[in-house]
Design goal:
The protein is of the alpha/beta class. 41% of the residues lie in helices and 15% in strands. Helix 3 runs parallel beside helix 5 and helix 6 crosses helix 10.
């Protein structure tokens, strides 16, 4: 069979991703990526530490970032994203900026981190009051609140699970329950779901429709910020951060109905 007429694969632009060693949601990241962009993932070295502030510090050391960028340099990604929320907020705003500088010194053409992307997303949405959902322990959640306070963002409510391992196994039903508790009667401008190991892609439009506010998540903002460096939009139907028309519906009547999830059909409410 002659396939010469196909002309070879389409040209691709690359996004390098440095993820913690226990990251399990590669497929979720890909769901936000358009067809002409490829993700190139590498992981930090394994350390026998549970999810905690200690682990956040270990997986964000500058030498670890340097090795991650070196592992990606051969494929020359246009931007490198550090995909860990706690690892990028544990050192505060100065620590997050230093991480980006360390990545560019190691050879990244551009660098973003999840927590830096979070602040960019909050600015994009003009959010000054935010509710938090986290799978973390109290100490890690408080560290995130401190990072946001340093940026001038008020946390109006929070809900967390206190997990120290296997965060990727949390079902959507639990994320929804936490979101409802975090928002409560406090009227935040938006909801942030933290941790790149917490599944969120399908639940974002469901929560935006119910809560009538933008809902952003760690993986979503990471890919959104990385793709902005490429001048490309992330793919995500009914997600306010990614779709200006969806964003404008808040406060102006109903939000377009999102797809129905299997868990909703089972009575997840």
């Amino acid at each position: 069979m002659n396939v010469s007429f196909l002309g070879g694969p389409r040209p691709q632009r690359g996004v390098g991703v440095i993820a913690p060693f226990d990251f399990a949601l590669d497929r979720e990241l890909w769901r936000w990526v358009p067809d002409d962009v490829s993700l190139h993932l590498t992981r930090t070295p394994y350390v026998p530490v549970e999810v905690s502030l200690d682990l956040a510090r270990l997986v964000s050391e500058h030498e670890t970032l340097h090795e991650g960028v070196r592992a990606l340099n051969e494929v020359a990604p246009a931007v490198v994203a550090y995909a860990c929320t706690s690892g990028s907020f544990v050192g505060g705003i100065a620590g997050e900026r230093a991480m980006g500088e360390a990545m560019t010194r190691a050879g990244a053409a551009h660098a973003v981190t999840t927590s830096g992307a979070l602040l960019d997303a909050l600015a994009e949405l003009a959010v000054r009051r935010v509710a938090l959902v986290t799978p973390y322990t109290v100490s890690v959640t408080r560290s995130l609140e401190g990072y946001l306070a340093e940026a001038g963002v008020m946390v109006t409510g929070r809900a967390s699970l206190g997990l120290v391992r296997h965060i990727w196994k949390v079902p959507y039903r639990d994320v929804v329950d936490m979101a409802r508790r975090a928002v409560g009667p406090t009227a935040p401008d938006a909801l942030f779901i933290s941790c790149t190991n917490l599944p969120t892609y399908d639940v974002i439009p469901q929560l935006e429709a119910e809560l009538r506010m933008p809902v952003i998540s760690a993986n979503q903002v990471t890919i959104w910020a990385a793709l902005r460096h490429l001048g490309t939009r992330a793919v995500g139907p009914y997600q306010a951060l990614l779709d200006e028309s969806a964003r404008q519906t808040f406060g102006r009547g109903s939000v377009p109905p999102p797809p129905v999830l299997p868990e909703e059909q089972e009575g997840w409410a």
